[in-house]
Amino acid sequence: MKTTNRPKTAGFTLVEIMIVVAIIGLLAAIAIPNFVKARATSQQNACINNLRQIDAAAQEFALEKGKTTGSTISYPTDLTPYIKLNSNSSIPPCPAGGTYSCATVGNNPTCSLSSLGNYPHIMP
User: Fold this and answer.
1) Chain-wide mean pLDDT for the chain?
2) What 3-state class would DSSP assign to 60?
């Protein structure tokens, strides 16, 4: 009697593939919240740096134009010559989608996201 040997085909079993998918899912469940937190923190820091630049531009405007503390500012037209503009020739926007306002000399500029939960956009 003649027997034929069939060569074994190499491959992964369904259980092995399911284990790998479960491990990847577990790693993603751990990593994704950290990515979200890092993104919110970086947006907050970028916004605060933009607020500092706006404040410095307001101080420079007041110094050059002879304005005193409490004088009104026409934001953004008065500050445009004193701040580095982005590629759209405008003051850089809040990276999280907020809007900036700066009404008077001597008061810190504000972002509309200043009351944003754990990551408020407020100058220290």
Assistant:
1) 89
2) helix
Cis link prior to 109 (omega < 30° from 0)? Answer: no
Given a cut of 70, whether residue 37 has pLDDT beyond it is yes
DSSP secondary structure string for all residues of 37-88: HHHHHHHHHHHHHHHHHHHHHHHHHHHHHT--TT-B--TTTTTGGGS---TT
Is 119 a member of any domain? no
With respect to residue 3, please indicate whether it lies within any of the assigned structural domains.
Answer: no
Domain interval for residue 48:
18-111
CB under 8 Å to 122, separation ≥6 — which residues? 48, 110, 111, 114
User: What was the pLDDT predicted at 2?
Assistant: 67
Q: Would you say residue 79 lies in a domain?
A: yes
Is residue 78 predicted with pLDDT exceeding 80? Answer: yes
Backbone CA torsion sign across 19, 20, 26, 29:
negative
Q: Per-residue DSSP letters for 20-37?
A: HHHHHHHHHHHHHHHHHH
64/58 Cα distance (integer angstroms): 10
Q: Kindly state whether residue 77 falls inside one of the protein's structural domains.
A: yes
